[in-house]
Description:
The structure is a single chain. The chain contains ten helices and twelve strands. The protein is α/β, with parallel strands linked by helices. The strands form two sheets. A six-stranded mixed beta sheet has the order 2-1-3-5-6-4. A six-stranded parallel beta sheet has the order 9-8-7-10-11-12, sandwiched between helices. Helix 1 packs across helix 10, helix 4 packs across helix 5 and helix 4 packs across helix 9. The structure holds NADPH dihydro-nicotinamide-adenine-dinucleotide phosphate. The site of NADPH dihydro-nicotinamide-adenine-dinucleotide phosphate has 26 residues, from helix 4, helix 5 and helix 9.
Amino acid sequence: METDFSREKRILGVIGNPVSHSLSPLFQNYLIKKYKLNWSYLPFCVSKEHFDLFINGIRHLENITGFNVTVPFKEMIMPHCNKISFEAEKVGAVNTVTVKDGLLYGDNTDVYGIKMTLERCLSVFRLDDRPVLLVGAGGVAKAALFVLELMGAKKVIIVNRSVDRARALEKYVKENYSYQVSLFGLTRLNSIMAKKDIHLIINTTTVGLKGESLPLDYDILLKECKIFDMVYSKTKTPLVINAIKKGIRAVDGLHMLVYQGVKSFGIWTGIENVDADKVFEYLKKKIRKNNGKNTYN
Ligand code: NDP
């Protein structure tokens, strides 16, 4: 295959540290090929120390169309943006940047990814009076809390390992959203599950990334409970595997990754009718092929 090095080639990418594990280049380049664009999507690993320099350089490169931003830069990118979308402002994080005439436009497509996963994968369209349990209080928890507001939640219980770290989040919710919120340490997870009528659990911690499990007693979960584990890896996460074994509907973060990526692709290219299911199938197939049998199915 001939490689195109012409000036017309547009560059997209993902900026993070680390970034080598990212699956975004895989499916974004699949989309680029599918739509016959003369573009490429590349991973960029940048140190915190050089982040500002890197962004100022990118701003003035004429063939950069945009980039995704991942850990640890989703907040650090905000002061660099000339304009920030409503969602990104609410969530306090940008994961998608568009570059135009030296200006940076910041968006947050995690919000879309979370909402689509709840709707399409778990058939959660509107939340009722029953409390939602949100585990974790890091960066992506803020995006989830915003989605819960959009979907009409009335009560949200946040459970986090460090209660002190989660206090600011609780305060933010109380000041900005209409639902009731309460906060507990992770050790209270099962006592809360046993007492409250919880029908939706969203895990926004990193627990599960390396095959670890949340200390959740699956026997006390209601049969109708649904679980959204934002963690994704090359195999299904322990939370999802254990929940499914108990007959509970559960989904991991791979769908969210695809939905947020498809939305970013739409922002950069104007192509908005991408079939996310096909992208998901492609990604699953690639993961399976790269890792032998013991992976996604
Ligand atoms: P942060 O580092 O901001 O937050 C991490 C969270 O995990 C905190 O609540 C932290 O608790 C908790 N945590 C970490 N280790 C443990 C542990 N051993 N036991 C209990 N809690 C723990 O990360 P993000 O919010 O940016 O990301 C969280 C997860 O969401 C990651 O796995 C990431 O891959 C995933 N994600 C998935 C996306 C997708 O598209 N599917 C998009 C974005 C994120 P504490 O406050 O006590 O430290």
